């Protein structure tokens, strides 16, 4: 596996073990039939429970049965899962970074005790409802409302493009609390079998096909006050969760790109034209050299981010830079790998075109490439372009 400047030589034994476990899981459980799942638009059945059993959900948190592994170990896990498919990494990062993290960081003791153990094992599945039909890049303009009525809240509105909503047991829904001054955004734990909740599946995707995506309709949904995440108010609630998930995506994109590189390298050694392996021609070598260089520089960035996160010096803007750079890199390299495979490259027999299609989603969700450009632009100039 490409690790050109031997970054993995510095891993400790736990980090190696987690990397190897995830790599083996992808080889045994994902690679054999991910092409079929992608073609059929299905998520492998039983996989959430299997991933839970292996400890793939939020292992970087500690307590409630979670081991508190290093941020490097967590990143390597995301990298290996996305080498299998972005949809598999997405399932793990939504469950861990977007559902367990807000409960862990902002929830009451009762909420933590109720949800973290079963989300951690995959016995329960969660989803994260921020995006709305009319508000994607600008979630602060959300229209979903929560109105206090005695000791209940009544939620109404709709969320869309929600990973796993049709299969989720619980949704972390972000809504404006109209009973408080200035209607701040608050997080609400909404069980999806509640009266008034609907979770239609979105079927027409040409990207991220091995991942379930849906809507969340909220029609006067009454939930008890105890279901509000008590310890956060305002946009920093959902945005803090995004920072956790974007960190995992920056690592994951390296895995997808590495898988494209390894597939193209193997193909270039085997495939002969004009009497020799195509890998012997200078143009193909140039492509491999460029891919290896781009992947290596992206690897360096995420390893540095892990160190900053570990010592508490990681800023959201650092994560924006890595998400923006690494996903663009993976999107570009997937296309180059695809072209190196010639006609065979357009089939689901090989991974690059699947990764390439997935990268269109990854480039768009968790803040589009443009939005991360503007976040960096604001950080570098002190002037916000999007206000
Ligand atoms: P702004 O006024 O800048 O900030 C509001 C408060 O939040 C704080 N903050 C952050 N905190 C943690 N992490 C971040 N990344 C943060 N960004 C801002 C900020 O300090 C402030 O705190 P305070 O204490 O002063 O109140 O907020 P804004 O509304 O103007 O934000 C602008 C913008 C464009 C950066 C933000 O809206 C944005 O990131 N938009 C992109 C939307 C997005 O990424 N949506 C993702 C939806 S979830 C998803 O796609 C899941 S896919 C997952 C999968 O399947 O893997
Ligand atoms: P828009 O915001 O409408 O953007 C359209 C275009 O305009 C983009 O190119 C964008 O970069 C550009 N643009 C927008 N504003 C500006 C600006 N100020 N300056 C310059 N250009 C701008 N959301 C969730 O809440 N939970 C999930 O689990 C989830 N999962 C997803 C899974 C999939 C498969 C997909 C595709 C999306 C998912 N999303 C999820 C939604 C995702 O986060 C949004 O699609 C994303 O934030 C972009 O919003 P939008 O699609 O409404 O695009």
UniProtKB/TrEMBL annotation:
Q: Which GO terms describe its biological process?
A: fatty acid beta-oxidation using acyl-CoA dehydrogenase; fatty-acyl-CoA biosynthetic process
Stretches assigned to the Acyl-CoA dehydrogenase/oxidase C-terminal domain: 234-379
Query: Has keyword Oxidoreductase?
Result: yes
- Coiled-coil stretches are none
Q: Please write the reaction equations for the catalytic activity of this protein.
A: glutaryl-CoA + oxidized [electron-transfer flavoprotein] + 2 H(+) = (2E)-butenoyl-CoA + reduced [electron-transfer flavoprotein] + CO2
Q: Name one GO molecular function term.
A: glutaryl-CoA dehydrogenase activity
Q: What does the record give as EC number?
A: 1.3.8.6
* Residue span, Acyl-CoA dehydrogenase/oxidase N-terminal domain: 13-123
Q: Extract the Pfam families matched here.
A: Acyl-CoA_dh_1 (PF00441), Acyl-CoA_dh_M (PF02770), Acyl-CoA_dh_N (PF02771)
Name of the molecule in the record: glutaryl-CoA dehydrogenase (ETF)
The gene behind this protein is caiA_3
């Amino acid at each position: 596996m490409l690790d050109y400047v031997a970054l993995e030589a510095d891993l400790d034994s736990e980090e190696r073990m987690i990397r190897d476990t995830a790599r083996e899981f992808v080889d045994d459980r994902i690679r054999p039939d991910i092409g079929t799942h992608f073609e059929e638009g299905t998520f492998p059945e039983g996989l959430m429970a299997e991933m839970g059993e292996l400890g793939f959900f939020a292992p970087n948190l500690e307590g409630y049965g979670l081991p508190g592994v290093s941020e490097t170990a967590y990143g390597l896990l995301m990298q290996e899962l996305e080498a299998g498919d972005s949809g598999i990494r997405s399932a793990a990062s939504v469950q861990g970074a977007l559902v367990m993290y807000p409960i862990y960081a902002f929830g009451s003791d009762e909420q933590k005790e109720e949800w973290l153990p079963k989300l951690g094992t995959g016995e329960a599945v969660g989803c994260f409802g921020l995006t709305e039909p009319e508000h994607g890049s600008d979630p602060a303009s959300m229209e979903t409302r929560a109105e206090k009525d005695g000791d209940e809240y009544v939620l109404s509105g709709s969320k869309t493009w929600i990973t796993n909503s049709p299969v989720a047991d619980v949704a972390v829904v972000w809504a404006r609390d109209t009973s408080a001054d200035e209607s701040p955004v608050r997080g609400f734990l909404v069980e999806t079998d509640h009266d008034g909740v609907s979770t239609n599946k979105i079927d027409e995707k040409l990207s991220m096909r091995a991942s379930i995506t849906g809507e969340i309709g909220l029609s006067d949904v009454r939930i008890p006050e105890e279901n509000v995440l008590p310890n956060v108010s305002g946009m920093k609630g959902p945005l803090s969760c995004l920072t956790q998930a974007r960190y995992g995506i920056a690592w994951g994109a390296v895995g997808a790109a590495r898988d494209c590189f390894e597939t193209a390298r193997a193909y270039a050694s085997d495939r002969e034209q004009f009497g020799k392996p195509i890998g012997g021609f200078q143009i193909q070598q140039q492509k491999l050299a460029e891919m290896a260089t781009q992947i290596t520089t992206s690897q360096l960035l995420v390893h540095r981010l892990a160190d900053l996160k570990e010592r508490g010096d990681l800023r959201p803007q650092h994560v924006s830079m890595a998400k923006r750079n690494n996903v663009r890199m993976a999107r570009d390299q997937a296309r180059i790998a695809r072209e190196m495979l010639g006609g065979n490259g357009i089939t689901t027999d090989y991974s690059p075109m699947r990764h390439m299609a997935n990268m269109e989603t990854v480039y768009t969700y968790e803040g589009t490439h443009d939005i991360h450009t503007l976040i960096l632009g604001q950080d570098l100039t002190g002037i916000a372009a999007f206000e």
